[in-house]
Amino acid sequence: MDLGLKDKVVLITGGSKGIGFACARAFGQEGAKVAIVSRDPANLARAYEQLKQEGLQVHRTRADLHEPHSAVDIVEEVSTAMGPIDVLINSAGAARRYDPETLDADAFKATMEAKYFPYIYPQQEVLRRMAERAKRGGGEPGTIVNIIGMGGKIASDIHIAGGAANAALMLATVGLAHYYARYGIRINAINPGPTLTERVEEAVRLEATLQGIESAEALARGQAKTPLGRYAKPEEIADVALFLASRRASYVTGAIVPMDGASAPLI
Questions:
Q1: Is 217 exposed, middle or buried (0-12, 13-18, 19+ CB in 10 A)?
Q2: Distance CA 239, CA 148 (A)
Q3: Domain coordinates of the chain in residue numbers?
Q4: Superfamily (CATH) of domain 9-195+235-258
């Protein structure tokens, strides 16, 4: 099936590992020109070399997206090196967990800076440029896919601040999708549940230590709680991102797609 992604310029924040890296590989395999962003130089170099060895078109840039000027800079850099950005995949940032009794103003602020703004800053700059292109009648409208954790829908005692950031990102996704639809720009989000990434592996090891069991047993117990009987693979999240960014999803915008193996039966 031709997804119409060949030679599209795809910017992926958090593209050096986990779901972001899976997206980079998936889009590259579709013939897209992929730019990955990470603040960790070692992860960035490792991901870049792996993608290059697979024969994929890839550009790398190191940036800390907590600052708006950094987002503007990377969008300019990628646009200059590869051409106008057609697709933005936001998969950067991670929110720290807190004991609710330790939450204070600084914790809430730090969480928003860690999770909310690293999505909003590049998204706003990319949207500005996509809208300008649309007004000039230049090329196909762009698309954005935000990878946002399920914590924005389901409250957890230790993830209140992070969940609030995720909920805010979901609202921004659907609100901006409503406005920018007039330019043909589509904005959607994916809500992954537990996915077999380094972050989940770390959480499994911690859980195993707390329970005094082996990591394999902790993982098995966690997966058994999922109706599908397992956690997601990063590649499965990437496949949905591919579809949402493609011409096959040309009438899909403002959607929040759950991918949690039916763990949270919400409407």
A1: middle
A2: 15
A3: 9-195+235-258, 196-231
A4: NAD(P)-binding Rossmann-like Domain (3.40.50.720)
pLDDT digits (tens, 9 = 90+) for 191-237: 998 888 877 777 777 777 778 888 888 888 888 989 999 999 999 99
Dmax of the chain from CA atoms?
62
* One-letter amino acid for residue 258 of the chain: P
- Does the global pTM surpass 0.90? yes
| Residues with Cβ within 8 Å of residue 129, at least 6 apart in sequence | 75, 79, 84, 85
Helices vs strands, H then E, count in the chain: 9, 7
Percentage above 70 pLDDT, the chain = 98
Dihedral in degrees, nearest 10, Cα atoms 65, 116, 49, 143: -100
Angle, alpha carbons 233-256-194 (nearest 5°): 30
pLDDT of residue 207: 75
